[in-house]
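Note on ligand handling. Small-molecule inputs were canonicalized before submission; formal charges were left as drawn, and no protonation-state enumeration was performed. Where a ligand contained multiple stereocentres, the stereochemistry in the source SMILES was retained. For adenosine-5'-triphosphate, this procedure yielded the string shown in the input block below.
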Amino acid sequence: MINVESLTKKYAGFTAVDDVSFTARPGRVTGFLGPNGAGKSTTMRVMVGLTPASAGEVTILGRRFADLPDPGREVGVLLDASAQHAGRTGREILTIAQRTMGLPKSVVDETLERVSLTESEAGRRVRNYSLGMRQRLGIGVALIGDPEVLILDEPANGLDPAGIRWMRDLLRGFADDGGTVLLSSHLLHEIEVIADDLVVIGNGRIVAEGTKDSLLAAGGTLVRSADPAALAAALTAAHIGHTSADRGALLVDAELAVVGQTAFAAGVPLVELRAADGAGLEEMFLTLTAESQRDSITDPEGAAA
Ligand SMILES: Nc1ncnc2c1ncn2[C@@H]1O[C@H](COP(=O)(O)OP(=O)(O)OP(=O)(O)O)[C@@H](O)[C@H]1O
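Structure output:
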């Protein structure tokens, strides 16, 4: 269990994380989603004691990270897959972790197998690893102490589709065994296939939180016509809220049957009509992304302050 309570982090007057609270629960994979610069890494760095909080606190398994008696065996952390010494081999890096934590030698081979790094890959220097191999090794270092909690910053970055499926299965198994997983991503679709719960952050604040299913279900109806203007006019006349979505479609705040009936009554032929399935979440995420890009353009001091 990870508990974030009213966490705020300021850098010289710039608020990177603004009164953030959420819980990542055992048995669940919690996705921490937000556009670049939203505050995900900062929150995770505070979690593991690398950055002090300006206000609020984070507890892991009921204690602050600094107060955990045996942190490596309680919390597995991957913040930056490229932070390993490039001149060491994968096996050496796992061996250092094994010795530091006082674990039996056998865990090195077990971990290599768990993260699907072959014998010859394990003997290669990390500078010659692909990004995906570095992520696997980083996940291995996080897992080696058999922790109860995993905190992973952008672990899917650099993984190919097969790698993402591998990671999903691995994290699913970890959570099914009672573990708590928190992983961040700036890509909705990447996290959508892995997470059970979502916490969405934008400009340092939580903007949505809940089970993935509930957030994806709250999408309304997606409808497309060859004549979008006539469709929009018909919906407006019927006082049904709608916004523009991808490729001329409309995202409508009403049930499927109501939208179909309204279009039919107005004589507007449709080419697509379906439950939006997360389009609401996607729209919200795109708006957030656009906002943060606009902020960085219109507020040049914002990010660096
Ligand atoms: N040491 C620092 N000093 C000043 N500002 C910082 C510092 N670290 C982070 N920031 C700022 O805090 C904000 C949040 O950054 P953070 O790295 O937490 O975002 P993120 O959500 O992890 O983004 P990304 O997906 O790009 O990794 C950004 O505007 C960033 O520039």
